């Protein structure tokens, strides 16, 4: 990653701040000059950072994952490094604490994707530590809320197993997943096994066969018979078991899903959807281009499914300007309680908005004209998906790392870079707080012409035009010190791959405090990748390292700034 900047007419070169510029060349000599703290470790670029502890690294991985890798490390390399950190925690008797962190992040909807959570849970379940294994299997039903999660967990558990992978504890946990649902919510189980028949190369038939399940619950017996032998055999079993009301409801629903699977008439499909609350996955492919069918599905469509299918519904003319559905969708997207109940994650909303504005899918031939009110609704949903916070009244400098390493995809999403994601996350604080200055830095620093009423598309577009170069994370503090700016809180959004410049960030904030006599000035580092580095000194009580796109991150930062923690 060189330091050559690309000129851009949208930014005035006279506004560029550089602190004692160095040459673009980097190497061992420069790296040795900047190590001034015994706890620092060298990163891939030859610069020096602090190493975060294994529990903090686990939190980063659970929320950010490692899909797509980083600028300096592949996905597989990061996955191996994080797996080793889990093993160390378990060997240090912190396995139960790790499992509780996994459960907490999953239940609170703090992570955008469940893959990292399930990978970590599988490692804990496969460990040799009895307490860790027990804790992991005990929270399986809480973490694996739908069959897709269960199939993914089984896949990861298989990859971590040295034997067959289906020991007593594993079989019992899989059995329990089906038995608990059948006991408490039999109709929900019937919906789930027909909605998610097969994922991750695993099916319900596979799990039931390998877990040697022997159901005691009559509802589960009928559902298993349906999975293994089909509807007619399930009906025969129901007759043998007696005319129980729950059994009759389950059979009626299962029969409706079979009718839907074979259906060719859209009027019949509409009636089945209305009467039995069927969902998109129950509709055969041949009817998925029917506007009438989609109109019926939308009546009860879950929030996440609605967000995922906005492009499809727009392409069919269902969300035309001024239509009743345009208003209904906008109202739903701006409903805080509905977003919370559906565990809608802000990153997923950002990805959906970024995709929707393009007017076409990344795969296939689907195209649409983006609806303005829908885009406004998605923009609002993004901010609402973060836990609400009150303004602190402090003076902020919000600094976005725009160096070359931030150009990699964020969380494996090809259409969104870490730089884009950092800009979007910055806007949450920028809109909340009154006193903010926004800057972007690489080996030089620039002010960013962003307004509070800019939508996310405008913010991402502006940040993407900023020239990039090397990484000097000390620049925000050095700039504020030289320009005599009074700042209470510096928030730096970065991947922590810093190497450029002679002054280390933690030293820059210390110097700033002394010169400006703001002795408790805070530095918050928002990590945008799941590597093991941070520029924040873990021993400094006024520095905080936090995981980017944790839906609870803004609340944690506010509590830290107001010294409530």
From TrEMBL:
<dbReference type="InterPro" id="IPR037214">
    <property type="entry name" value="TROVE_dom_sf"/>
</dbReference>
<dbReference type="InterPro" id="IPR040322">
    <property type="entry name" value="TROVE2"/>
</dbReference>
<dbReference type="GO" id="GO:1990904">
    <property type="term" value="C:ribonucleoprotein complex"/>
</dbReference>
<dbReference type="InterPro" id="IPR036465">
    <property type="entry name" value="vWFA_dom_sf"/>
</dbReference>
<keyword id="KW-0687">Ribonucleoprotein</keyword>
<comment type="similarity">
    <text>Belongs to the Ro 60 kDa family.</text>
</comment>
<protein>
    <recommendedName>
        <fullName>TROVE domain-containing protein</fullName>
    </recommendedName>
</protein>
<keyword id="KW-0479">Metal-binding</keyword>
<dbReference type="GO" id="GO:0005737">
    <property type="term" value="C:cytoplasm"/>
</dbReference>
<dbReference type="InterPro" id="IPR056800">
    <property type="entry name" value="vWA_Ro60"/>
</dbReference>
<feature type="region of interest" description="Disordered">
    <location>
        <begin position="1"/>
        <end position="33"/>
    </location>
</feature>
<keyword id="KW-0694">RNA-binding</keyword>
<dbReference type="GO" id="GO:0003723">
    <property type="term" value="F:RNA binding"/>
</dbReference>
<dbReference type="InterPro" id="IPR008858">
    <property type="entry name" value="TROVE_dom"/>
</dbReference>
<dbReference type="Pfam" id="PF25045">
    <property type="entry name" value="vWA_Ro60"/>
</dbReference>
<feature type="domain" description="TROVE">
    <location>
        <begin position="41"/>
        <end position="394"/>
    </location>
</feature>
<dbReference type="Pfam" id="PF05731">
    <property type="entry name" value="TROVE"/>
</dbReference>
<keyword id="KW-0963">Cytoplasm</keyword>
<dbReference type="GO" id="GO:0046872">
    <property type="term" value="F:metal ion binding"/>
</dbReference>
């Amino acid at each position: 990653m060189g330091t050559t900047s690309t000129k851009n007419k949208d930014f005035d070169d006279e506004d560029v701040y550089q602190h004692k510029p160095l040459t673009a060349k980097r190497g061992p000599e420069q790296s040795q000059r900047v190590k001034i703290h015994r706890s620092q470790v060298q990163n891939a670029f030859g610069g020096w950072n602090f190493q975060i502890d294994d529990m903090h690294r686990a939190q980063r991985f659970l929320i950010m994952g490692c899909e797509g890798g980083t600028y300096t490390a592949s996905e597989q390399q990061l996955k191996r490094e994080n797996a080793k950190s889990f093993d160390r925690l378990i060997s240090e008797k912190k396995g139960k604490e790790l499992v509780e962190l996994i459960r907490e992040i999953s239940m609170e909807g703090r992570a955008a994707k469940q893959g990292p959570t399930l990978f970590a849970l599988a490692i804990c379940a496969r460990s040799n530590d009895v307490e860790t294994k027990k804790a992991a299997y005990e929270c399986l039903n809480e973490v694996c809320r739908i069959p897709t999660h269960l199939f993914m967990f089984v896949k990861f558990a298989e990859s971590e197993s040295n034997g067959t992978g289906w020991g007593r504890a594993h079989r019992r946990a899989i059995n329990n997943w089906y038995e608990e649902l059948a006991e408490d919510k039999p109709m929900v189980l019937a919906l789930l096994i027909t909605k998610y028949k097969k994922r991750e190369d695993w099916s319900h038939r596979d799990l039931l066969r390998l877990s040697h399940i022997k159901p005691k619950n009559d509802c589960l017996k009928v559902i298993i018979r349906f999975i293994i032998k089909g509807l007619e055999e399930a009906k025969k079993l129901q007759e043998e078991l007696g005319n129980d009301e729950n059994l009759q409801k389950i059979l009626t629903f299962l029969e409706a899903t079979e009718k839907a699977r074979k259906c060719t008439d859209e009027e019949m499909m509409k009636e089945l959807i209305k009467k039995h609350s069927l969902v998109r996955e129950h509709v055969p492919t041949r009817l998925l281009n029917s506007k009438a069918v989609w109109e019926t599905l939308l009546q009860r469509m879950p929030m996440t499914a609605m967000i995922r299918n906005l492009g499809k519904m727009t392409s069919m003319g269902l969300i035309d300007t001024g239509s009743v559905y345009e208003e209904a969708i906008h109202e739903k997207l701006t409903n805080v309680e509905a977003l919370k109940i559906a565990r809608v994650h802000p990153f997923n909303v950002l990805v959906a908005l970024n995709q929707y504005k393009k007017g076409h899918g990344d795969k296939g031939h689907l195209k649409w004209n983006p609806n303005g009110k829908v885009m406004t609704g998605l923009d609002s949903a993004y901010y609402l998906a973060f836990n609400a916070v009150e303004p602190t009244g402090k003076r902020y400098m919000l600094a976005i790392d725009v160096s070359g390493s931030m150009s990699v995809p964020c969380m494996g999403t090809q259409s969104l870079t870490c730089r884009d994601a950092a800009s979007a996350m910055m806007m949450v604080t920028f809109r909340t707080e009154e006193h903010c200055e926004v800057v972007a830095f690489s080996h030089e620093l620039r002010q960013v012409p962003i307004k509070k009423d800019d939508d996310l598309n405008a913010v991402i577009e502006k940040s993407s035009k900023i020239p990039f170069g090397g990484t000097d994370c000390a620049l925000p503090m050095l700039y504020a010190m030289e320009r005599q700016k009074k700042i209470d809180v510096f928030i730096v959004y970065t991947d922590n791959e810093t190497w450029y410049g002679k002054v280390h960030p933690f030293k820059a904030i210390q110097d700033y405090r002394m010169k400006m006599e703001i002795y408790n000035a805070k530095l918050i580092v928002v990590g945008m990748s799941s590597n093991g580095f941070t520029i924040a000194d873990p021993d400094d009580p006024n520095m905080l390292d936090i995981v980017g796109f944790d839906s609870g991150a803004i609340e944690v930062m506010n509590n830290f700034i107001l010294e409530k923690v």
